[in-house]
Structures are given as structure tokens and as C-alpha cells.
């Protein structure tokens, strides 16, 4: 298998085409005559409609076939490639309508992605701080709505190792519905509705890696966010869905005597690897795609990846901080 470059890894995570540099690929989604066109899911606001998701043509067609008693009224504009749905008075009513559609699709086995049903609700934002409604975690991609998470890289200083550190790397459980047995970031997880990112990071540190809360609060530091748009592959439960994502990024420097240990079954085991070993596994494609992105961002911040040693440095950095039009709390960092 050919080795993946850092730019290859970046493009696997940020795989949605750019209009300026990939116009042909971009046109496949936004040309009215394209078989792979997508529709912008709109939400009306006093300042005009805002795009809150990208829905595939096949899903729009199926949504139109669902009884209105389940999904409520739907308006599709074929010229503008837009769709308006779930426009009810309250968040609770909108959430109920969205969940009714997702359960309808799950019960009818319409889309593969619903096989990974989690019984966990994630937010869809109508503005940068307003939750419009909630949707089953596994189904956010059916709406093409923003997805949020937290990712942390745990490292130990080691002057004898390459770049003076070693990094804790978990292997995902073989029973995971997405990316089974692949490598991951030290600790990571999704953000539920109105959950504080730092508190989520502390929770995940305990659940996934047995890291004590006091240690996390003392040493875990937020370093920023990353934003990108992913088109799903076979490892994610269903190919071809559009995932706009924002991740809150954290580092934690650990004492040499602290060991990461699996706790909740999300990870099978943890390895303490040199930077060279991590980069070699990345080049072999062994990491979950957005986890490779998080590691690239870590390498940039720690001076491991530089304009001097990476010819595609500028594009890599641009792609890990993609400008997204969707509203939500990530816009505070844009």
C-alpha cells in the first residue's frame, strides 16, 4: 500500500471540495443537473434564511414521501436547491418532528447509518448560540448538520525520543460501529446538547482512559479548534454523507508515571509511541481520519511540522481551519 502524505491525510478528513481549487468536484454537489446534487437545509431568521445543513438528493426525495403527519410540512425549491423542514414553534416540537423522521427511517431500514443508533441527542443550531432542535447522534449526517466534539493529545516529555516526547495512542475497540480497531487520539468524544467542551473532555478522560478528574483539571489545556467538512467513507456507517465538523482541541502533558488504561471499552489498549512511530502509522492509514487531522494540528503547534519540512504546509493549515457557513458556537473561533 502506498504511503499517505500529510496532505493526503488532511484531504481524507477535509474531503468536501473547495469551489476555488476543486471547481469540478464542487459543481457535482451544486449543479441542478447533477445526479449527486445536494440541497441546503434552511432555517428562517430575521436576517434571512441560514443554511444549517446539506442534505443529499436521495434523502430529500425520501423525506418528501414521508407522511406529513410524521414530518410536518416540507418546502423544496428545485431551482435554488433548498429545503425547509421542521419549522415548528418550539425547540421541543421541532425535536419531536426530527426524531419521528429518524425513527421512521430506522424502522424502515432506509439508511445504513441508522444501524448505529446511539440513543444520544446532538444539537442543531439555528444561530451561533441558539439550539434549534436535537437529533439522534448517528443521524446528524442525514441532515448534513454540524457535528461537535472534543479531542485531546496526551504526551510525555522524553528527551531521548524523537522531538523530545512520546504520545499516548489508543486502539479503538473491534466492536465499534465506526472505524473498528483503528488508531485514535488519546481521548476524544462527541458533545451533547449544551455540554461544556472542557467538562466533556474531563468526562471522556475518565471514561475512556482512566484519567483522574483532578489531574485533568490541573493539566488539560484547550489549544483551539479545528473545522472541516468530511464526506463519509465505509468506516463511518454509510458512504457519501456530508459531515461539517468542529472539534475543540486539548493537550495534556502527563508525568512519566501516569498510564492511560481502558475503562469503558471504547479503547482496547493504549500505546506510548515516539513521534516517528505515530507518523509512520499515520502514513500507513491506520488512524481514524479526523484523528490524523488532530495529530497534524498538534505537530504544527509543537514545531514538528513546519514550512521548512512540509511542502504542503500552507494548504494543510488552511484545511484544518476551514471557513464554515453553518451557524453554531464554533463561529466564535472563526
The CATH superfamily name of the largest domain is Nucleoside Triphosphate Pyrophosphohydrolase
CATH class of the largest domain: Alpha Beta
Count of helical stretches: 11
Average pLDDT metric: 96
Number of domains: 2
CATH fold-level assignment of the largest domain: Nucleoside Triphosphate Pyrophosphohydrolase
Distance between the termini: 37 Å
Sheet/helix structural class: alpha+beta
The CATH architecture assignment of the largest domain turns out to be: Alpha-Beta Complex
Gyration radius, rounded:
20 Å
Shape assignment: globular
List segments where confidence is low: pLDDT < 50 over at least 5 consecutive residues: none
Keywords: Hydrolase
Protein name: NUDIX hydrolase domain-like protein
Organism: Pseudomassariella vexata
InterPro entries: DUF4743 (IPR031804), NUDIX_hydrolase-like_dom_sf (IPR015797), NUDIX_hydrolase_dom (IPR000086)
Secondary structure layout plus pairing:
Blueprint: H1 6-13, H2 23-30, E1 38-43, E2 50-56, H3 57-65, H4 68-71, E3 75-77, E4 82-84, H5 91-107, E5 121-125, E6 131-136, H6 140-143, E7 147-157, E8 165-172, E9 187-190, H7 197-209, H8 213-219, E10 221-231, E11 242-253, E12 267-274, H9 275-283, H10 289-301, H11 313-319
Parallel strand pairs: 1-4, 7-11
Antiparallel strand pairs: 1-2, 3-4, 5-6, 7-8, 7-9, 8-12, 10-11
Helix pairs in contact: 1-10, 1-11
Protein name: NUDIX hydrolase domain-like protein
Organism: Pseudomassariella vexata
Domain Nudix hydrolase: 147-295
What does this protein look like?
The chain is an alpha+beta fold and 334 residues long. It has 2 domains: 6-14 and 148-333, Nucleoside Triphosphate Pyrophosphohydrolase, CATH 3.90.79; 37-143, Transcription Regulator spoIIAA (2-Layer Sandwich). 30% of the residues lie in helices and 25% in strands. It contains 11 helices and 12 strands. It has helices spanning 6-13, 23-30, 57-65, 68-71, 91-107, 140-143, 197-209, 213-219, 275-283, 289-301, 313-319, and strands spanning 38-43, 50-56, 75-77, 82-84, 121-125, 131-136, 147-157, 165-172, 187-190, 221-231, 242-253, 267-274. The strands form 3 sheets. Strands 7, 8, 9, 10, 11 and 12 form a 6-stranded mixed sheet that branches. The chain has a 4-stranded mixed sheet with strand order 2-1-4-3. A hairpin with a 4-residue loop joins β3 and β4 (82-84). α1 packs across α10 and α1 (6-13) packs parallel to α11. The longest helix is centred in the N-terminal third of the chain and has 17 residues, at 91-107. The protein is globular, with a radius of gyration of 20 Å. The protein starts with 5 loop residues before the first helix and ends in a 15-residue tail after the last helix.
Amino acid at each position: 500500500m502506498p504511503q499517505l502524505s500529510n496532505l493526503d491525510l488532511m484531504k481524507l478528513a477535509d474531503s468536501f471540495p473547495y469551489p476555488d481549487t476543486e471547481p469540478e468536484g464542487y459543481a457535482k454537489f451544486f449543479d441542478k443537473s447533477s445526479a449527486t446534487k445536494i440541497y441546503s437545509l434552511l432555517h428562517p431568521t430575521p436576517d434571512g434564511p441560514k443554511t444549517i445543513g446539506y442534505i443529499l438528493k436521495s434523502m430529500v426525495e425520501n423525506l418528501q414521501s414521508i407522511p406529513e403527519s410524521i414530518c410536518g410540512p416540507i418546502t423544496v425549491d428545485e431551482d435554488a436547491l433548498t429545503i425547509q423542514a421542521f419549522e415548528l414553534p418550539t425547540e421541543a416540537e421541532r425535536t419531536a418532528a426530527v426524531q419521528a423522521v429518524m425513527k421512521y427511517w430506522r424502522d424502515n431500514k432506509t439508511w445504513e447509518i441508522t444501524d448505529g443508533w446511539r440513543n444520544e441527542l446532538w444539537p442543531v443550531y439555528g444561530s451561533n448560540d441558539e439550539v434549534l432542535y436535537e437529533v439522534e447522534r448517528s443521524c446528524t449526517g442525514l441532515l448534513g448538520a454540524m457535528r461537535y466534539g472534543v479531542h485531546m493529545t496526551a504526551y510525555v516529555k522524553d528527551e531521548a525520543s524523537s522531538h523530545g516526547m512520546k504520545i499516548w495512542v489508543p486502539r479503538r475497540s473491534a466492536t465499534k460501529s465506526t472505524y473498528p480497531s483503528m488508531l485514535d487520539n488519546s481521548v476524544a468524544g462527541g458533545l451533547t446538547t449544551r455540554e461544556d467542551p472542557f467538562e466533556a473532555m474531563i468526562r471522556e478522560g475518565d471514561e475512556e482512559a482512566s484519567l483522574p478528574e483532578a489531574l485533568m483539571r490541573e493539566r488539560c489545556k484547550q489549544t483551539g479548534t479545528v473545522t472541516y467538512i468530511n464526506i463519509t467513507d465505509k468506516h463511518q456507517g454509510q458512504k457519501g454523507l456530508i459531515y461539517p465538523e468542529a472539534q475543540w482541541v486539548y493537550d495534556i502533558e502527563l508525568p512519566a508515571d501516569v498510564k492511560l488504561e481502558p475503562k469503558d471499552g471504547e479503547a482496547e489498549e493504549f500505546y506510548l509511541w515516539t513521534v516517528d512511530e505515530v507518523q509512520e502509522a499515520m502514513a500507513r492509514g491506520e488512524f481514524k481520519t479526523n484523528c490524523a487531522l488532530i495529530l497534524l494540528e498538534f505537530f504544527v503547534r509543537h514545531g514538528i511540522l513546519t514550512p521548512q519540512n512540509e511542502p504542503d504546509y500552507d494548504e494543510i493549515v488552511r484545511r484544518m481551519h476551514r471557513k464554515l457557513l453553518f451557524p453554531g458556537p464554533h463561529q466564535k473561533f472563526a
